[in-house]
Design a protein that fits this description.
The chain has 112 residues and is α+β, with helices and mostly antiparallel strands. The chain has helices at 31-38, 50-62, 98-110, and strands at 41-43, 68-71, 89-94. Helix 2 packs across helix 3 (98-110). Bound molecules: zinc ion.
Length: 112
């Protein structure tokens, strides 16, 4: 029996994961389903602009953290024609890795 959350394997006598307080399942869900259900993306706060967003994105990808950039004013394609406001960009990162991402971002800013 396995815990669907922490994926720990238990003996047949155990029916609830003591750590997660979740009912054990005979089989773990496939990894794909797992990432879909747990990956929630949130915008990284205090990003000064698109250049920084690109740099932080590169650093996160080096750490194998999935992320993507989204312009705040989506649908306003003309904003990309050189005069786009710097504030109009958000870098989305997985919610459960937000702390790590903020740390990486801060480390980067210190070196600029
Ligand atoms: Zn568990």
């Amino acid at each position: 029996m396995f815990c669907p959350k922490c994926r720990y394997e238990y003996t047949d006598q155990v029916y609830v994961c003591p750590d997660c307080n979740l009912k054990l399942v005979p089989q773990l869900p496939t990894k794909n389903e797992d990432t879909v259900s747990t990956a929630r993306f949130v915008p990284l706060p205090n990003l000064p602009g698109r250049v920084y967003a690109e740099m932080v994105k590169g650093a996160l990808e080096k750490e194998n953290i999935p992320c993507y950039i989204q312009a705040a004013g989506i649908g306003n394609a003309y904003q990309f024609s050189g005069t786009m406001p710097l504030e109009g960009v958000q870098l989305y990162v997985p919610e459960d890795q937000l702390e790590t991402c903020i740390e990486i971002q801060h480390n980067m800013m210190d070196h600029i």
